[in-house]
Amino acid sequence: MPDRAMLTDTRARRPEAIAAAAAARRRPATPLGEGGRCMVIAADHTARGMLGAGRRADAMVDRGDMLDRICLALSRPGVSGVLGSPDVIEDLLLLGALDGKAVFGSMNRGGLQGAAWEIDDRFTAYDAAAIAAMGYEGGKMLVRIDPDDPATAATVEACAHAVSDLAERRLVAMVEPFMATRADGRVKSVLTTEAAVRASLIAAGIGTTSAYTWLKVPVVEDMERVIGATTLPTVLLGGEVADDQDATFASWERALRVPGAIGLVVGRSLLYPPNNDVGAAVDAAVALLPRAVEAS
Predict the structure, then answer these.
(1) Which of these, 158, 232, 164, 239, lies nearest to 200 by C-alpha position?
(2) For the chain, which terminus, N or C, has the lower number of CB atoms within 10 Å?
(3) Does any domain span residue 107?
(4) pLDDT of 158-178, one tens digit each?
(5) How would DSSP label each residue in 30-67?
(6) Structural domain count of the chain
(7) pLDDT in tens, 193-219
(8) Is 86 domain-assigned?
(9) Model's pTM, two decimal places?
């Protein structure tokens, strides 16, 4: 387990150690992994109030356990980076777990899960200036588009500014777009091919340039149409923890064969797999990448 006492003591007595660790981090040559494909561990859920994984409603409540799982995932061969909120990234910096890894700072976490204002996803975490100052490779933002919710406009506009600000600094803007609706008072992502295509096209057009934009999309039925809708580099997100992990991996592998797919960005599905074997789950996901390269 990570040394939680060390983390707390450092934060209390030497908070400047975080910036020092960021400055000392050995950066990767490229945000992409070996062979032009990336395998990024997502760890930004808790900042939006998402605590559950699979059938465990409080899976991510224990920070020591969560960090242990992330560190194990990052130690596996072929894992190229991490995506996280400031608190998680800074713990990993202090633990020395990010040397040679691409780091993507999560930016808008204000659309708290279940909140009345959820679709108005405020930028409450990293901004482009902080990502550049810390020497990270890029920033990630979530944009959920509900045509029936006027608050969508503010989120799309804020994401456009973030894309432009990151591009100005030549940093990756990883945009995660969903068409959304409300059901029983809760925001639900629409996971159809048509919705994913529409969301991708909207996301591709935001900001003053798309030169540094990557799309982060869900795996749906017809990924050829989704990925083929733009020429932007596209990473696949893992989504919820599934009971049938083999079927999930098979769907990822099929999607990775589509030209334009450059890798996986997965969190709960690998950190909290059904059998609780993080190392095996990560290794199995990484193994999909070279096979996908050969098939492209």
Answers:
(1) 232
(2) N
(3) yes
(4) 999 999 999 999 999 999 999
(5) SSS-GGG-EEEEEE-SGGGT---BTTBTTTT--HHHHH
(6) 1
(7) 999 999 999 999 999 999 999 999 999
(8) yes
(9) 0.95
What's the rounded Cα separation, in Å, for the pair 33 and 35?
6
Handedness of CA 11, 69, 133, 215 (dihedral sign): negative
Asked whether residue 142 is domain-assigned, the answer is yes
Query: Would you place residue 242 in the very low, low, confident or very high pLDDT band (cuts 50, 70, 90)?
Result: confident
119: its two tokens: 């679709």
CB 212 within 8 A of CB 206: no
CB 270 within 8 A of CB 241: no
Domain that holds residue 41: 27-295
Q: At 176, phi and psi to the nearest 5?
A: -110, 95
Residue 57: the pLDDT is 86
Q: Is residue 11 part of a domain?
A: no
How much is the CA Rg of the chain, to the nearest whole Å? 18
Burial code (b: 16+ CB inside 10 Å, e: under 16) for 84-95 equals bbbebbbbbbbb
CATH code for the domain of 135 = 3.20.20.70
- Measured CA to CA in angstroms, residue 26 lies from 135, 137, 268 at distances of 10, 12, 26
- Kindly state the tokens that stand for 167: 């591009």
- Pick the closest to residue 240 from 251, 248, 229 (CA basis): 248
Residue 160 corresponds to which amino acid? Answer: A
Collapsing DSSP states into helix, strand and coil, what is residue 180? Answer: strand
Give CA separation, 214 vs 114, 139, 147, 242, 263, in Å: 27, 10, 23, 25, 11
Residue from 82, 28, 36, 83 nearest 263 by CA: 36
Place of tokens 């990756």: 172
What is the phi/psi pair of residue 53, to 5°? -150, 120
Rounded (10°) CA dihedral 1, 67, 273, 45 = 160
